[in-house]
Write a structure and sequence with these properties.
The structure is a homodimer of 492-residue chains.
Chain A: H1 5-8, H2 47-57, E1 78-80, E2 86-89, H3 92-95, H4 104-110, H5 116-120, H6 131-140, E3 151-155, H7 159-179, H8 186-192, E4 204-209, H9 218-223, H10 228-231, E5 242-243, H11 252-265, E6 267-273, H12 287-299, E7 303-307, H13 336-343, E8 347-350, E9 357-361, H14 381-396, H15 399-417, E10 423-428, E11 431-435, H16 439-451, E12 454-455, E13 457-459, E14 463-466, H17 474-491
Parallel strand pairs in A: 2-12, 4-5, 4-6, 6-7, 7-8
Antiparallel strand pairs in A: 1-2, 3-9, 8-9, 10-11, 11-14, 13-14
Helix pairs in contact in A: 4-14, 6-14, 11-12, 15-17, 16-17
């Protein structure tokens, strides 16, 4: 596993990050190279992390903190912690770092005078944007718009806000269709102020799937079905249906029949689904299943929202994971782009690796009136500027192609281990996962890996999920695999 | 009005911003002084703004944009637009700029190497924070914690997320009290996955007030009651009650009786209220009314959430507007601090002028289990660093005291105008408002003021709201008053 030299010659793009230098003197203290291997000096979390957690817990929530990282000492695929450890990071802040730590392109761009004012005052973008906002959206963010989705709405700060606003757009669209009139009636305007029908369409629902995760605010949480700890004690929209996610390809027909029954029998504004159910345990379905959902949502005039908060931005080997939905259709030659347009969801949400949040949508989902999808800040220009550099770097360094190559390598090597305790290896690109025999075993494994210098994450009940940055290379994969092998050996 | 020299000698603090210089060469292009007066070269929005809006609307929502600002040319209380106008800004991105534009303290701090890594990768603060996060929360954010509120939870990006998470904390607290057991039962854990009782406490409610604004996501929107355009077509929690906000001090007893009836007759987790109903039209009630709410919420074991997203951070002449609730009690001598603790709400939300969002809370509102108030990013360290500098600058320059002085000056001058069309001048500090005779007249006035070089905002149906930065001075007030007088003269 140590040497993957022969394989590495196949890699098309040059791994430029380690050879580039950060030139600006103002950041001379930032590291410029990755360590050759993880460096582990204490247990993780170490004593300094534990002390900081204790101090933080006195005034705020610190219990979920795994360790305190040192942003000044982290670089590339390696996160440094405050106890002097340098860990190979294949989890990357819960799947949210596309270019690893302190990427030179970002460091350079961030020192531009263009960024500075946005750092010192946050503009209310919906009320008064700066001119570069137009440029950022039109030429950068829209350059990665999924096929068929010609508009974008940025939202404030997190994936949940992207989902909540996409759901709002779906409700407004559906109600506008239902009433066959753009403007709400006086009765609707009056009743909504009391949270009552018809203005508040409380019998209208959103359909989501078992094990789905779409966020933790009140609307998004009503569609989340992954774990009780997220949902218990919080009121939910009680009539929003939950449907089974197929347990196998054989199960997909049954599930699609249930979807059809539900769409037929309810007043449904939207169906929301992740291309890979991530938080819920890295659950996959076939492209045909998603195409089936698309056909049904189209037939019953239901908005199809594809939640790519975790799957988006390259890690699956495509920029958007839902691009795989055309698999099998691609070879059909003429009519391919028609087919791709046919399967396009109506909206695609993003956050995490974009570092900014929002959703792409078909123009018909723009509310007919202004101020209906709105908030004071309506996004964050700094985070959008970051997204611009990320998008450019992914294109210039052909990182999505790299992810496919490194992902294949990693996946094959995982299968090659043929370890009796490692079950159901699955995934796309480097967005990989496998199961261990029990939740306790999985949790011990995560801890053990970290203490050996490699950070990986959990999902579902007994799944290990790999969520490295897009700059994760085969030699990082080798270190991960070695560490995994020794961790597994010690568990037996 | 031109000269307020005699008055100005009373001002305690030196207005340091215009004399400080930005030294770093990397920002030499940023302006360092305010213009002496507004500079108006075109209508606002001008042709360049209109063109940018047209371009933006092709891919995103641009209809609510009033004009495009130029962050590189804005300074202090003056916002530059892309058409070369320099406008005195008494609205400040919908009440969200505490220190105006490009404040030297922020410019200087933002160039520190400490900020840089947070600009290039957004950490998942709930999962792995950097060490300075502990410092920022403990010594900066907590330094402005309202009395009695010893904990803080930062949230992602916007005021609505602060409110939604505060509401979640209230529900978790109330359910934990109700079941008299920290851990939810197996039945609760199972039923919440289907959005059903008892796990989803759908008969438990939040009480809010007519004309209130608390945000636009699904939970917060259910408590917002300001305008139908925010609410229509979006499902709401149908049993969450709305109560009248007093129309006058004489009306307060009736309103409190209705509150008591509602708290008695329902399963209420929280009552949420703004200290000044801002978006709804700058509606005020007496300190005694708020103390009455506090007494009732305590009696019926209901969490009292004070929503200070718009009112917080100094503009009312106190750091938090709810500090005024002790008015009348302060003179009672001994027992004052007990009285202040008695009236403290259970949670206080913030965003806007803090530039970061979250809520302060009494430690008993920390959920008994981890991961219940959580999200990937769980805040934004950049925006919290900004908040730190803002907090330090407000203290060092005694800006809250300044606001009281400038606010008194501005309020007296507004009254002094004695204009027949200006009604109900009201407010605290520079957080001032008045009414015009009709919505059409108010809207024309806002437009007219902007074309004369001064930005003010609207709220409610016919209210003009002033929301200048905390560095707004008496000579800015003079320009505002002059411009107002000529705008009014042209309307007659």
């Amino acid at each position: 596993m140590q040497c993957a030299g022969a394989f590495r010659t196949r890699i098309l793009t040059t791994y430029r990050i380690v050879t580039r230098r950060v030139d600006s003197c103002s950041v001379s203290t930032l590291p410029r190279e990755e360590p050759a291997r993880p460096l582990v000096q204490t247990l993780v979390p170490g004593p300094r992390s534990l002390e900081l957690a204790r101090e933080l817990q006195e005034v705020s929530e610190a219990r979920p903190i795994q360790f305190f990282h040192d942003p000044q000492q982290s670089f590339g695929n390696y996160v440094a912690d405050v106890d002097g450890n340098k860990l190979l990071d294949a989890f990357c802040f819960i799947a949210s770092l596309p270019l690893g730590y302190n990427h030179p392109n970002l460091i350079e761009a961030a020192q531009s005078s263009l960024w500075l004012p946005h750092l010192v005052q946050r503009p209310a973008l919906g009320y008064s944007a700066p001119p570069e906002w137009v440029h950022t959206l039109r030429t950068k963010i829209m350059s990665v718009a999924p096929q068929g989705l010609a508009s974008v709405q940025m939202t404030c700060g997190c994936g949940a806000s992207a989902v909540e606003n996409a759901l709002k757009a779906a409700f407004i669209w559906k109600r506008t269709l239902e009433r066959d009139c753009v403007d709400p009636s006086p009765t609707e305007l009056e009743s909504c102020m009391r949270n009552q029908e018809p203005g508040s369409p409380n019998s209208m629902v959103v359909v989501s799937f078992e094990h789905a995760f779409h966020g933790r605010l009140f609307g998004s949480l009503s569609t989340t079905r992954s774990k009780p700890i997220h949902k218990v004690d919080i009121p939910a929209f009680r009539n929003w249906p939950v449907l089974p996610f197929p347990e196998s390809e054989q199960d997909e027909t049954r599930c699609l029949e249930l979807v059809e029954k539900t769409l037929k029998g309810n007043r449904v504004a939207a169906l929301i689904i992740e291309p890979i159910l991530s938080e819920g345990g890295d659950l996959h379905a076939s492209p045909a299943f998603f195409r089936g959902l698309r056909a049904l949502t189209r037939r019953y005039q239901v908005a199809m929202i594809c939640d790519e908060v975790q799957t988006g931005v390259g890690a699956t080997g495509r920029f958007w994971a839902h691009e795989y939905w055309s698999e099998g259709l691609e070879k059909s030659g003429p009519g391919t782009s028609t087919a791709a347009a046919e399967i396009a969801p109506d909206m695609v949400t993003f956050a995490k690796k974009m570092q900014a949040s929002g959703f792409f949508f078909k123009p018909e989902f723009l509310p007919p009136q202004a101020y209906r999808i709105f908030s004071t800040w309506s996004g964050d220009p700094l985070r959008a500027l970051q997204a611009s550099v990320i998008i450019d770097t992914i294109a210039a360094d052909r990182l999505v192609e790299r992810v496919r190559i490194v992902g294949d390598y990693l996946s094959q090597a995982l299968h090659g281990l043929n370890h009796p305790l490692i079950e159901r290896i699955r995934g796309r690109g480097t967005f990989l996962a496998f199961d261990l025999p029990s939740p306790a075993r999985r949790n011990r494994f995560l801890q053990d890996m970290r203490n050996r210098g490699v950070v990986v994450g959990g999902s579902g009940t007994k799944t290990v999920r790999l969520r490295p940055a897009l700059i994760f290379d085969t030699h990082h994969a080798d270190i991960l695999l070695e560490t995994l092998a020794s961790a597994m050996a010690s568990q037996q």
